[in-house]
Amino acid sequence: MKPLSSSALWLGLAVLPSPSSGEQSRNRTLLPWAFTPLPLGSVRPLGWLRGELQALGSGLAGHEFEFVPYVKDSRWLGGRSDYSALNEALPYWFNGLVPLAYTLDDERLKGQVHTVAAEVLRRQASDGWIGPEVGEDRNLWGRVPFLLGLTQLAEANVTGWKTPVVHSLVKYLRLVDVMLRDGGQGYTLCRWHPNDCSWGQVRVHDFISVIQWMLENTEVGERDKETMWGTMERLYRLSKFKWEDWYTEGRYQKVISDATPGNPEFPYLHGVNVGQGLKASAVIRRFDNRESLVKSTWNAVEWTFKYHGTPSGTIFADEVQRDMAPFMGAELCTAVETGYSLAYLYHALGANSFADRAELTIFNALPVSLTNDAWGHQYMARSNAPWALRQIDRRSLFTTASGMATIFGLEPMYPCCTVNFPQGWPKFIARTWARTETGLVHALLSPSAVNTTIPHRGRVVIECKTDYPFLDSLTYTISAESGFDLFLRFPTWAVRSESTVQVLPGAPESRPESMESVHIDAETGLHRLSIPAGRSRVIYNIASAVRVEPRPYGAVSVYLGNVLYSLDVGQSVTSSLPHRHWNAGGEGTHEFEQFEKCRDFYFNHTKPWNVAIDPSTLRREPWPRSTGFLERGFVDAAAGGPSSFLAVEGCEINWPVLGGAAPAPPPKNPKCVTGKRTFRMIPYGVAKVHMAELPTVKLQGDLIHNSDQGADWGDL
After folding, report:
1. What domain range includes position 539?
2. Secretion signal: which residues (predicted)?
């Protein structure tokens, strides 16, 4: 379609029927959040969590703008580079860099954000289009991550950016309204291939969430509000991919019989789509009001993880969703989208299990795929991965991923992950706290500081210092202008009878005013405390126990709190020049040599990996640290990470290798080929090579018995 002038836009609105009158739009409201998210910048990371953010900022994420072609030379900025006609590379990068820059309050990173935002808005077409496309090349999807970044920028920098961002989005949404009325241009009608339209439709809830942000956070005119309501409804109605239809008995594929992009249900099976789609029904419900969408949301989460979930909290999908085989991969892109969706669901619906799942994903599936310095990332991780090596001659094991997909580097596979993974940690931090009518909720437990205003109660500043999830004590230092309610989330895995809360008023040296047991709301998992005006401290102790959960093939996975533990298989590391995603062979490229930390990294085990364990012998080893808090979370102890580990009795077994590429499924009824010994288990996110789905044996003294595959190990 040809560009439209602003007058033509309003002419189009006048000629075509509107979904509702101005009076109706004034009376329409979105369903409220269970817990209202705070504006970006309200929450800062502390302790180990700040260390993870700083690694991102000084690592690959913080330098992509300087040398990665599809960011530095993006078509969005007048350059010539992108990895697809969707032009989504710079938008993905921007969506992650905005929260990273403002959460760290890093001037260098904020400078990158401001440079790109200013240039993109300067290039906005006269008819409102945002992006490099013209005419029939226009496709709505590629804009969505950039729009998400703009809304975050407007929150974090109200005085400098909210006005230009809102002005730009109003113009753009007016154009989208006309495009949708004009046969669905760029949404259901795409020039190059019909499949190009599927991305925007199956992910439309992310676009709708941008419109909802506009309705909740801006003072636009009634005409534009009416347009926005109509656009949400039209986007939803025109999409042929509705997640609530997919998550129904008889249609949802509990077993994937055709795990290829040729599957006609591919948009519902694409791993990143699934991760994003977990929140779809909850987003739609906010304007649609159908309570059936709550059931759809529960189906989405429960079925996805029951039939396709990894022990690390993400989804088996090497591009296409897979069944629960530990030799298959789970994309890093899928992990960050899954974690964000689950955090969104806790804010939207308030069910405690969503928050537990969000923590599980971010504390395990995200860090396991990043090197210590965050210069290298994996395209996909396996639950059982004693090596992460180049295996380009063994591709047949996977659906689409090459034999480079499990190494760590710049582009171990599709480059979408290079630009999308940086959103994981900063968006998690932004969702750690939320607001209610009477106070604040610590929704996702972590070391953090929040500075915000509670309506009618004034400003509240809270610092939470903790090594959670490695240790289970959290200390809150609070300053409040008036009394308010503090809600602390109690995880579903925690031991309530052994958990306590202490309130200490006044100065830090004050003695406890009270100690109480934890009393939680059954749905939200929240314990409520009435905090007085002035200064206070709260000490929250969450008791945890080692937990064993069954996995397919008679295997088990081991947890302490929300941290998955892996067999410690040791590691050796080698590196090479980085390889581009289209050329996995050879020595690598010399084009980025000025960035000497940009390399490909290959990991191999140095200890036995073919091990069966006796879960009844699991024990928690003492934490050797006595003072101070962790500087980093998911790196080894030598780099400032946790010294947390478990010990377990086990033995080596015969365990075949599948296709020469990965361990076969865990053997049932394994036979020991060595005597029993003590093995160490370490946090999965620390272990770049690991074994997290382990077969079991029963050990009695020096005798070894076959495992009872039906055992329910429970909490130990």
Report:
1. 433-466+473-543
2. 1-22
Question: pLDDT per residue over 451-509, tens digit each?
Answer: 999 999 999 999 999 999 999 999 999 999 999 999 999 999 999 999 999 999 875 55
DSSP code of 571? -
Q: What is the distance between the alpha carbons of residues 95 and 144, in angstroms, rounded to a whole number?
A: 9
Alpha carbon distance 452, 39 (integer Å): 9
**The two structure tokens encoding residue 86:** 């969707």
What is 179-242 written as a DSSP string? HHHTT-BTTTB-SS-HHHHHHHHHTHHHHHHHHHHHHHH----HHHHHHHHHHHHHHHHH-S--
Only one residue has tokens 């947390």, namely: 644
CA distance 149 to 141: 14
**DSSP character string of 645-661:** -EEEEEEEB---EETTT
What residues are paired with 504 via a beta bridge?
A: 537
**Per-residue 3-state assignment (H helix, E strand, C coil) for 601-628:** EEEECCCCCCEEEEEEEEEECCCCCCCC
Distance between CA 182 and CA 125 in Å, rounded? 18
Distance of CA 86 to the CA centre of its chain: 22
Please say whether the beta carbons of 89 and 74 come within 8 A.
yes
Answer whether 543's CB lies under 8 Å from 508's CB.
no
Strand order in the sheet with 439-442: 36-37, 433-435, 439-442, 484-489, 526-531
306 is a domain residue: yes
pLDDT tens digits, one per residue of 354-364: 999 999 999 99
Decide: residue 580, CB within 10 A, 0-12 exposed, 13-18 middle, 19+ buried: middle
CA angle (372, 373, 375) in 5-degree steps: 115
399-421 pLDDT, tens digit per residue, is 666 678 899 999 998 999 999 99
Claim to verify: residue 115 and residue 211 sit in the same structural domain: yes
Say yes or no: 142 and 209 in one domain.
Answer: yes
Closest to 246 measured CA to CA, from 303, 316, 308: 303
CB crowding 405-421: b at 16 or more within 10 Å, else e: bbbbbbbbbbbbbbbbb
Half-sphere exposure of 61 (CA within 13 A, CB side): 34
Kindly give, in sequence order, each residue whose CB lies less than 8 Å from that of residue 111, ignoring residues fewer than 6 positions away. Answer: none
Is the same domain home to 482 and 526?
A: yes
β-pairing, 484-489 vs 439-442, is: parallel
Asked whether 321 and 252 are in contact (CB, 8 A), the reply is no
Task: Assess whether the previous peptide bond of 469 is cis (omega < 30° from 0).
Answer: yes
Q: Rounded to two decimals, what is the model's pTM? A: 0.94
Q: Which amino acid is at 590?
A: H
Q: How many CA atoms lie within 13 A of 223 on its CB side?
A: 9
**Residue that finishes a domain, picked among 205, 240, 275:** 240
Residues 196 and 284 occupy one common structural domain: no
Helices 222-238 + 204-217 axis angle, to 10: 160
The strand pairing partners of 536, in sequence order, are 478, 505
For 572, the token pair is: 């050796």
Q: Residue 432: which of 31, 32, 44 has the closest Cα?
A: 44
